[in-house]
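call fold(seq) -> tokens
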Amino acid sequence: MIILIGFLSPEGRFTKCRSWHHIYVAVDICKLAYKKEIGVNEAEMFLMERGYICFTEREVYMRDVTGIYITEKQLNYICKNRRNLENEDQNASLYELLKKHGLANVFYNSGEEGL
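ret:
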């Protein structure tokens, strides 16, 4: 079992990390995927502006910006891996994120098969 802590790209690729290290992973993703050398404070925002979903030990979130939506590939990843959420805080936070995007039914219907 993997624990979901890290970033989920719009293309459905999950980059995992240890607890409390997501900001450093954000810097690495910016360097490797976007050839951007930016600091820890800017890196997470840069990814959020591109539709990444962040999974921390206590919450799951994405930037609330017009024009940024959860992609089908992200939904498929979530459906296949939701059982690996760390705790009830992550579960509640993921539910709220999906609900905000009109996808609350995905939370209850997700299983190992994806969408």
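The mean pLDDT is 87.
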